[in-house]
Amino acid sequence: MRTNKSVAIALEIAGSRATVAIVDRRGQIRHRFYAKTLWGRPAAATLQPYLRAVEEMVAYARSEDFSVAGLGVCIPGSLDSTSRRALMIPTLPALNGFPLCDLLEAQFNLPTRLHVDVDAALLGEHRFGAGKGFRRLLFLTVNAVVGAALVVDGKIERPPEQYVGHVCHMLVSTNGPRCSCGKRGCINTLISVDAIQKMVQRAVRRGEQTNLIQRLSNREYFSPQLLAEEAGRGDSVALQVYGEVGRWLGAAVIKYISIFEPNLLILGGGVLSASELLLAQVRNALVTHSSARVCSMVEVVPALLGVDAALIGAVVPLL
What we know:
Layout: E1 6-14, E2 17-24, E3 29-36, H1 43-63, E4 67-75, E5 78-80, E6 85-88, H2 100-108, E7 112-116, H3 117-128, E8 136-142, E9 146-152, E10 155-156, H4 188-191, H5 193-205, H6 211-217, H7 224-232, H8 236-260, E11 264-268, H9 269-273, H10 276-288, H11 293-297, E12 299-302, H12 309-313
Parallel strand pairs: 1-4, 4-7, 8-11, 11-12
Antiparallel strand pairs: 1-2, 2-3, 5-6, 8-9, 9-10
Helix pairs in contact: 5-8, 7-8, 8-10
């Protein structure tokens, strides 16, 4: 008997390249292409590598006798769900306000859905990952910025207006570093990748010894994974950084849970997925430092889909 050959095509715009993939109804990626991101170009030129990659993927899918249900696109920014356009993509301003869904539907004659990347990641985790079977899910991710998404009964829920698109500006410490929004102590200034790098730099300026300096001088790039490796080896600076990040993350998570009241909290992104140490610190904060009963009852788990969460989640509404 033939297996079900219904699939959807996902386009994830992120970093220095975009990923285009075929995703089947089990959430499995059957094939993928990559397309280079062109910065500083007009919208048409910016989109050209992505459109070529999607065209190749559609052709490949049909050559394999797949039935393509539609296209799912996720972006690193914010969107207007009514007009199905990106409001702001910080790295690609040429696409701000561009009718991307309309263009893709016209060119490929396939229904198209547009998502913010953190929303797409949570949809993927809800359908195929750590959130299966839970009604109310909160997803927290930490990479370049702190992001969050909430799913209720399988649909993205828009939280109170003051938190939409601004979860990275949750106030955690009134004496913290100055944020780009003008306030001090926003969570993004305390636990993002940039904040972690600054913690390491401060430790080095204080004269503290760390193997991180040796590795960086050997042209390794700083990353959450590199920090996690050194923490696992007992590097004092790496452990000190994790202690500080864990403290602020625990305080922020207590606030997030009090606001969104999830049944399950999923932690994802490069920083949070790099080490079990942070996961343990968050769990401990909820048990020992929270006076809210709802916090002590929420289970905290790592994301299961890894870097493919947003790619898979972008096509969930189509499968």
